[in-house]
Every structure is written in C-alpha cells, then in structure tokens.
Amino acid sequence: MKIETRTPLRPPSFPFQRGFYLPVLGKFWLSHGLALTWMVFSIYLSVPWVKELGEVVTVPVAIVLITGIAYLPGYLNAFMVVSLLFDRQPAFKTLDPKESLSILIACWNEEKAIPGTLQQLAKQDYEGLMRIYVIDNHSTDDTAEVAKRIGNELGLDIHVLFEETPGKHHALNNALSFVDTKYVITLDADTLLHPQAVRRLVARMESAPEEVCAVAGAVLVRNSRENWLARLQEWDYFLGIASIKRLQGLYQGTLVAQGAYSLYLTDVINEVGGWPDAIGEDIVLTWAFLEKNYKVFFEPTAIAFTDVPTKFSHFARQRSRWARGMIEALKQVKPWAQPRIFTRYLTGSNLVMPFLDFVYTFAWIPGLILSFFGIFWIVGAHTLLVLPLALLSNYLLYRYQKGVFRELGLHIRKNRIGFIFFVLCYQLIMSPVSVWGYVQEFMQRQRVWK
C-alpha cells in the first residue's frame, strides 16, 4: 500500500459543521439540554413499564432498576450523540514539527513484539530527533538484546534500560530520569504506528493552547481477524473508545492519555511526580493533570495499531484492570476537586458507571434470560428505545472514522458480523467483567500490569 507522507493535516468534519461556530461552553449546555429532553421523554414513555415492574419488585425498586437500565444510559448516550454532532477538530497550525522528543517503551517479555514496533518507528516521517528508550522490566526472555540489535540495525537512536522492580510505573519512571527533551511519548511494545503518527501527534500538541499538557493518540486493533473476540474489540476501539475520546477531547478533558500511545510535556509529568503506583497508572496520571487545570487533547488521525487479547481470560484481565484503574482515579482525584466544569462532569460521570454495570449485570442480563421464557418484566419492547441512539451514535462515528481513514490512505476492514454482535452483545461481556474489576479493587486483590 502506498501512503502519502504529506497528506493535508486538516481533520475531517461533517459537512453541516463548516462555517458554523458555537463556543465549547455553548455546545456543552445545549448537549445537556437536548439529552435531558430525551430522558424526560423516556420517563414519560416508561410509566407503564414502571407500574408493571413495580407490581413485582415494588415501585421504588423498579424506578432504581429502570434508571440504571434506561434513564441514565439514555441521557449519557444522547449527550454524546449531540456533542459528536457539534464536534469539529481545530485545524493544525503547523504541518512539520521538528521538536526533539523521547519515546518510552516499557517491556516485559516482548522479544517477539518489539522488532515490529521498532521497525514502524524507523518508518516515521517525523523530521525531529526521536530518542527511544526500551525499558526491560525484569523480562525472562531476550527482550533487551533483541531491542538493541534491531534498533542498531535500523539506525535508531536507541537506549536499553533495565528496571528490576516489577511494575510498569517503575519502568516508566526509571526512563523519565533520563529524558531531557520537551516532549515524551509512551508506546506499548506490541503497538505499531502509522507512518504519520508521531508527526500528527506532535502537530496537535504544537497547535494547541499552552495549557494543553498531553495528547492521546488513536489506538485501533491490528489482529482483528484472529477470532470472534478480536472482531468485537475491533469495533469497540474503532467506534466505542474513539467516540468517548472524541467527546472528552471536545470538552478539553480526555480522561485517559493512554500509555499505549500518547504524548506528554515532560515538565508536567515531573510536576505531578511521574507515573503513580496504580494499576491504571495512565488514568491516575491524566486525572492529576486535569486536577492542576491542565487540558488533555485527543488526536484521531495519530493512529497506532495494537494487538488485543484473543483469549477471554486475557480480555477479562485487561478490562477488569481498566475498571480498577477508574476506581483508583476516583479515589485519588475526586471529581469535585477538578477546577473546570467540563472535567468535573466528565470525571463525575464515572461515579455512576459501577451502578450501571451492576444493574446491567444483575438485572438486565437475568431479565434477558427471562424474556426467552415469555416474561418481559425487565427486557421487552420498551427496551428497544435504546437502539435508535446506539445506532445513530455508531453511524456518526463510522462516518467520521471513514473520513480519517481516507485521509491516511487506509481502508476499513469488512466486519459486518462483528459489528452486529458489538451493538447487540458487547455489553453482555463488558459489564460483568467490569463488575469483577470493581470487586477486585474493593478486596484489594494483587495488581498485575501485564
């Protein structure tokens, strides 16, 4: 595939957005107003449902359950849909940034994955200095030797470090002490960058206001053809995670500058004390930025491709770790301590996620099973009201992402069956796994980053 290395750096937008400007605060309140209107309409339509379910579990319990199943999810989805309709990435102010930067790759037994990652770094069209630190975090294979050999063969400015103490934050903080560049990028050892990825990430940072201290890249799935679980995750990354990050980026508070691929100001990382001792070290780090009134952006055209878990046990371990990371962030940085209204809302929304996941796991899923036996107390015709919003939000994201791919010379894989199962079934997997993560954090189970 031939990829132009100097494609126009103006992000795609929806046609009706051109020439129309609404301040971010206006978008925020208008989106809330329309989302509230949708929720009020939903409550009106659900009165018979409340009465019917109330005869079984009492009306107060019915209201609590339906709030978790329909009212709150509907409100949050409506807010996201309206916000995405208003979203428009600002144009880049610079096309060819050349600021020196450091790239940190924390590794544990990655001798098979690290060659591909380094090869893609060698293909970057970025003209500034890229100093690469591979941190061997007590590997038992030949990660360090392979990284050094491949890096030298590719002519990279590579430095191999060793960190004996297990834990990703230990590895990253070790390397941070060597960093003397303005920018630092974290990259997972199994993540491959698009040839324009670094240039676009730095271009977004250098086009952003001074208070922006980090930019999250877009991480998509590379191994989606391996099995059904990978196919589901392809749409989660392509539509679900991307939509949430676009929403958060619009309101200048991307909640996770993910360690898999993000850019940071080195001085600000040092200001907050480096990566924290947390299972979700990137989540807690990002919230610490927001607490100090910094902003975090998202750049959808700075794309990286990663391998996702193909075994359910590995998937459950990863996603439960993400759920634990969210709880850690809530405990360390309270939403009401955030200085800006946008980040107070965005981080505060996470307070209701455990409630939604518990209700979905212990009420909606049993209700779905009962519906197969003709008992429609919880799952029935009324729950179909959720589908229009889900389909609309996914359509908007697909249309936008298609524009991103076209700009980068990429093609969207055909995965129709995976999409159908993603829309209809993905939450059946995600909510129970997230609940398990919450339970692990409550019980303070051992934390494992890999």
TrEMBL record:
The gene is arnC. Its EC number is 2.4.2.53. The lineage of its organism: Bacteria, Bacillati, Bacillota, Bacilli, Bacillales. The chain crosses the membrane at residues 20-41, 61-86, 351-369, 375-398, 419-439. It comes from Neobacillus rhizosphaerae. Belongs to the glycosyltransferase 2 family. Residues 102-272 form the Glycosyltransferase 2-like domain. One of its GO terms (molecular function) is undecaprenyl-phosphate 4-deoxy-4-formamido-L-arabinose transferase activity. This is Undecaprenyl-phosphate 4-deoxy-4-formamido-L-arabinose transferase. Keywords: Glycosyltransferase, Membrane, Transferase, Transmembrane, Transmembrane helix. The keyword Repeat does not apply. InterPro entries: Glyco_trans_2-like (IPR001173), Nucleotide-diphossugar_trans (IPR029044).
